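Budget justification, computational time. The allocation requested in the original proposal was used primarily to generate structure tokens for proteins on the priority list. As evidence of use, we reproduce two of the resulting records. The first is shown immediately below.
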Amino acid sequence: MLNAIHSPEIVLPPRRHLEKPGGQTIEGLVFIAGLVRELEVTSAFEIGTFDGVTTWTLARNMSSGVVDTLDLPAGERAELALEDTDEEVRELVSGHVYDELPHPATIQQHWGDSASFDFSEWNGACDLVYIDGAHSEPYVESDTRNAFEMLSERGAIVWDDYWRQVDGVPRVLHKLAAPRPRRIPGTRLVVHLTPKAEALLHQAGAE
């Protein structure tokens, strides 16, 4: 899998936007961009926009299509319990990278709480769902449930923040039925691939 994902040419944001507090790591962005390229993603849904670096990376590495991204509006209280770090990270956002840099795919910003947002429009339609919203167990469970509903037959789900600094993500992922999602070495990411996505990556890695 990694051989295929690390093979295509990818585009990352300018260095000044990388590795800011609360943001995705460079290795994480490399994996996400390569996955988008190899699966030829045309529909992606991101839960947790933050500063838009990952949003832009998704859109910039798609040849066409739409990235839908959801975040809680500034000043609005979350409906479910949060991790202590969730509120701290929200205060770091001052703008969105995708407003500054060009991208071939369309980006649609949605505002709302992922615990009550109506995802039904995207059921079965997303080639990639990226989960990086609130990190408490109730939110990760809700976001994961919705992600599996949205997943296309050739799609992938990627979770961020599988590490020691938050408990919610590993707790939820450890409860998932087999096949368990796989950790990506050198990152905080975990990925679930549908059988068709697995086959596409296997074929690409063998070529």
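The second record produced under the same allocation is shown here.
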Amino acid sequence: MLSLAVELADYPLDTDAGTTSQLRSRTCGSTIVLGVSTDENRHIASLGLRVTACAVGQAAAAIFASAAIGRDEAGIAKARSEISSWLAGEGERPDWPRLDMLDPVLDHPGRHEAVLLPWKAAEAALSNPVHAR
């Protein structure tokens, strides 16, 4: 999981992104600032992150970022819902690339919100009507 944190350097936050969102985990204090720009179909065209989180939060952000390009708000929301159910033990692991690397988190409910933070931040950013660039 720690090796994933290094990947975050590939996604620097662009302050000129179409829109940004900032969220904080209530359970562990992890924070994420996510900036996105979208294409004409409102799919993510580019993204950047600033993550202040534990290894779990950083790993989740890297996993999110590596597969987010081309997805739209509905797809992000569906993935977040499925991941939430999986973390709660109510479903199978969703089909998001490399999510299996977070399997060890299943037994640590205090870290579940840190896992969900990037998906929630993307939903918040994409719900902003001014995000196309």
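A brief technical remark on that second record: Strands lie at 19-24, 31-38, 44-52.
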